[in-house]
Specification:
- By secondary structure, the protein is an all-alpha fold.
- The protein has three domains: 171 residues, no CATH class; 249 residues, no CATH class; 177 residues, no CATH class.
- The chain is 58% helix and 2% strand.
- The chain is built from 33 helices and six strands.
- Strands 1-2 form a two-stranded antiparallel sheet. A two-stranded antiparallel ribbon has the order 3-4.
- Helix 2 packs antiparallel against helix 3, helix 2 packs parallel to helix 4 and helix 18 packs across helix 21.
């Protein structure tokens, strides 16, 4: 779609809306633009895509903001150049504005786009067009977030700020209203079409359904629709909104199904269909429920948030369905035995105990028969973590850190096994470099395993303590017989480093760019290579307070384990890490001019250093960076910088003593949700921390079956892979609940232990039990007088 880029904002907006409406009229769709996955979701719930009109308007608004405030708003992540137009004489004119004009232009254009979105919304609802509806939702979400950013960035309370807040609220309300309409649309489709089947719902029919070869179509079609809709919601609307809509769909459809099955009076021929349907339904809900939960406790019903009424409703309805299944589907002789014991001996009539809901225990024991629910906290956390519409970084961190980093150790062991040299053929170097070179393989290459090890190492370094360093990192590092090789000062220039080594170097990353700029600028203005080395050491010393205690502590631990035959730079593991990191930074230095920074410099004798043969004043920044990098490789030769090195090490030790490491370490992640959020924010505050969490999350998503088997204690021959996980196909989704086929009660693959179920405390009262039991056809019409008498004795007060 072509729109003009020059001219008054209001004129451009009118033409933009006109062109967008013309596009809809012609194509019956909304032109959309994708949004970077890195910002999707979050606290503001950014959409995955927005209409072209909304995206273009935001870009124009940013030009207006820069003109009014002489700075960028920060909404576009990267600063956008100020718009420059030409006058009639060809001279460049920078667009000018002020906060009042900016606010007036934004509110007017917001109002015009709002009217346009209302028109598109009405068209979408009239034609039940979900594509157009989700497109308008994305546009409303994007504009709402942009207005929120402008409100936060606006200075003071200038005129018109209230108007910005008013329109921000309007777009927020519009997004919420559209989400309600989306939910209403899906709920109507479910109730009017999916959940209707005159043949399968004819419970009083004396003929068996489908020759007793299958359950009803309703549950199967409902399962398929819910799965497909979840995928659509996850890929279209903002993540949090998608989760709310899907939760509403599940809750409302479950209401219909629960009322239907709890009040049904099936004939003898349809009684088996009744129990098969309920069993299928409970298994389906067990698979769908994790997508709308935030914690394992919410999924199991152990500690439901009192504010999350929807989850409480879902658990209560599923518990009602389990009651129907138990009291109507259990064998008659089981009923006879249980009710012969007396009221006090019937477990289901006793108050429910703390812990997982009985219905979730019932289905989980069938779906995962080898799983011990009492000690399966990691497994259940994984079930909840995987189907989320957006990564929950705090939950991911908790999962990795649970049970003393059980999952993290699994990742490390998998990577270590693959990195072991297994080639063994003639001329094999034995360092594992011959592995992972097959680029056509779907399995992880050596680089991928390096990334996983580096990610987990950085995570432990950032939030762990000394004990965890020893148990998790040093134990892993020293498994490699050649680990000390990395600390030979002759290899300080090498860029082929072990992943754990690179992760440790990343701790000093905040210092590398400033020091690189400083030393390049110094050499550019005439400093010698000797002075450049002094500048580096002095800068490390003066800026050391910017580094936490983790680098010094892990360096000291490795120093203690280092053999006397290996000599690191300046005989210091810490200095080896620092010079390695700066060497890499200098190699990657950009061509931009470094800032002018003054460093107080003296050589080791307090005199002016001798001039270098390298003339930095006539060299490019790239040449200077390479020269300095090579000079750093000999920084400890001839004891020229001994005092400066000692000063750096002394400063690092002093700073660590003044700022000791937290003693609780990783265990804090599982003790308090507030502390977990702080630790997650700490990781996300650095580029390497973000990358580490994303690598671990991606690896886990694509290897969920492999990881689940390990957490269940199964032996598996599956290999982890980094390829995008492939769907098992529509037919598998239709006829399977996870890995279990539909109608397992019918085909004999599942025989519940009814007698044991009767011993589970469920908090039922005699009236509820009586209603369900006396609806059984075999008690109403069969010759089972003794069983009926025993039941009536116990439930006599309520069965009259």
């Amino acid at each position: 779609m072509e729109v003009m880029e020059d001219g008054n904002l209001m004129d451009k907006v009118l033409i933009l809306i006109q062109r967008d409406m013309e596009y809809y009229t012609e194509k019956q769709s909304v032109l959309q633009e994708k949004i970077c996955p890195g910002v999707v979701g979050g606290k503001l719930d950014f959409p995955r895509s927005a209409s072209f009109a909304a995206v273009k308007l935001v870009l124009w608004w940013e030009d207006e903001f820069v003109a009014a405030y002489k700075k960028d708003s920060g909404f576009l992540q990267q600063q956008k150049p100020t718009k420059v137009s030409n006058d009639e004489h060809g001279a460049g004119i920078v667009k000018t504005s002020d906060p009042a004009k900016f606010t007036a232009a934004i509110t007017k254009s917001s109002d015009q786009l709002l009217d346009h979105l209302h028109v598109l919304t009405q068209e979408a609802l009239d034609h039940a067009d979900l594509t157009v509806l989700t497109g308008t939702i994305g546009a409303a979400a994007l504009i709402k977030n942009c207005l929120w950013c402008y409100v936060q960035r606006s200075e003071g309370k200038q005129a018109g700020l209230d108007e910005l807040q008013k329109y921000q609220k309007k777009y927020q309300e519009m997004g919420e209203a559209l989400a309600e309409r989306l939910l209403d649309l899906h709920s109507r489709l479910l109730s009017l079409y999916i959940l209707q089947d005159s043949e399968g719902l004819d419970w009083e029919n004396e003929r068996v359904f489908c020759e007793s070869e299958r359950g009803s179509y309703v549950i199967q079609m409902w399962w398929l629709y819910m799965q497909g809709t979840k995928d659509d919601l996850w890929n279209t609307v903002p993540p949090k909104m998608a989760q709310r809509v899907f939760a509403g769909m599940l809750n409302e459809s479950l209401t219909i199904l629960t009322v239907r099955y709890s009040h049904a009076m099936p004939s003898k021929a349809r009684s088996q269909l009744y129990t098969v349907d309920i069993s299928n339904l409970l298994l389906c809900v067990t698979k769908l429920l994790p997508a709308i939960c935030n914690t394992a406790n919410e999924f199991t019903g152990s500690q439901l948030n009192t504010q999350n009424k929807m989850l409480r409703d879902i658990h209560s309805k599923c518990q009602e369905l389990l009651t129907c299944l138990l009291l109507r589907g259990s064998d008659l002789h089981v009923l006879y035995k249980m009710f012969k014991r007396g009221y006090d001996q019937i477990g289901i009539l006793k108050p429910k105990l703390p812990g997982p809901s009985p219905w979730i225990t019932f289905t989980m024991n069938h779906l995962y028969p080898e799983l011990d629910l009492t000690s399966a906290s990691s497994f259940i956390e994984l079930l909840v973590l995987l189907p989320q519409p957006q990564p929950n970084w705090a939950q991911l961190l908790k999962f990795i850190c649970m049970d003393e980093c059980k999952v993290g150790k699994i990742f490390l062991n998998a990577a270590l096994n693959e990195l072991k040299p297994k080639c063994g053929v003639f001329l094999c170097s034995g360092d594992g470099s011959c592995k992972g070179v097959d680029t056509t393989s779907t399995f992880l290459t050596m680089k991928h395993y390096h990334d996983i090890i580096m990610a987990f190492t950085f995570l432990v370094l950032t939030i762990g303590n000394e004990r965890e360093y020893r148990q998790l990192l040093l134990k892993f590092i020293t498994k490699d017989a050649t680990w000390m090789k990395s600390f030979d000062k002759r290899h300080v220039w090498s860029q082929q480093r072990p992943p754990w080594y690179e992760a440790i170097v990343q701790l000093a990353k905040p210092l590398m760019k400033p020091i690189s700029d400083i030393v390049i600028n110094a050499v550019k203005t005439g400093a010698s290579m000797y002075q450049a080395s002094s500048i580096v050491l002095t800068a490390f010393t003066q800026l050391w307070d910017c580094i936490g205690p983790e680098l010094f502590i892990i360096s000291s631990m490795l120093q203690d384990l280092l053999s006397t035959s290996v000599v690191p730079m300046g005989n210091s593991v810490l200095l080896q890490f620092l010079i390695s990191g700066l060497y890499s930074e200098l190699l990657e230095s950009s061509t931009s001019n470094p800032p002018s920074v003054t460093i107080h410099l003296e050589d080791d004798k307090g005199n002016k250093a001798k001039d270098s043969l390298f003339d930095g004043t006539k060299s490019t920044p790239e040449e200077i960076a390479l020269a300095v990098a090579e000079a750093l490789c000999g920084i400890d030769e001839d004891n020229k910088h001994t005092e400066e090195i000692n000063a750096l090490l002394h400063e690092a030790k002093r700073a660590t003593e003044d700022n000791p490491m937290n003693t609780e370490g990783i265990r804090r992640a599982t003790h308090s949700d507030n502390v977990l959020e702080v630790m997650t924010s700490l990781l996300l505050s650095s580029k390497q921390g973000k990358r580490s969490l994303k690598i671990l999350h991606h690896f886990m998503q694509n290897n969920d079956e492999w990881l689940m088997d390990i957490l269940q204690g199964k032996s598996t021959e599956l290999k982890p892979t980094l390829a995008n996980k492939k769907s098992k196909g529509l037919l598998h989704t239709m006829f399977y609940i996870g890995d279990k086929p539909f109608d397992e009660l019918l085909i004999g693959n599942w025989t519940p232990n009814w007698q044991q179920l009767f011993t589970v405390p469920m908090g039922l009262n005699a009236h509820r039990v009586a209603v369900q039991i006396f609806a059984r056809w075999d008690l109403k019409h069969g010759n089972n007088q003794e069983t009926l008498v025993n039941i009536q004795k116990i439930l006599k007060p309520t069965s009259a």
